[in-house]
Specification:
The protein is mainly α and 85 residues long. It is 66% helix and 0% strand. The chain has helices at 2-12, 24-33, 39-56, 66-82.
Length: 85
Amino acid sequence: ALEEFLRTWVESQGLSLGSRKPSLDGYAVILRDGDLITKQDYKDITAWGGLRNHAAHGEWAEVGDRNRVSLMLEGVNLFMRKYTS
């Protein structure tokens, strides 16, 4: 959901990824460079992406902490609400 949110936002702003890979980080860099998100938002997106990647690659020891996962979900939801027009 977060990656789709960022992709849609980048597209709606007419921003280009250039040679960047379409990814959470790629979209976050573009939005940060465009001064559309804060430095802290960028750091949060990077952390959330890391946790998501651990889960996607079956690295269960990295995602076994329910509190950490819950905080990530709350953070993503708050972020998307913050930037929804």
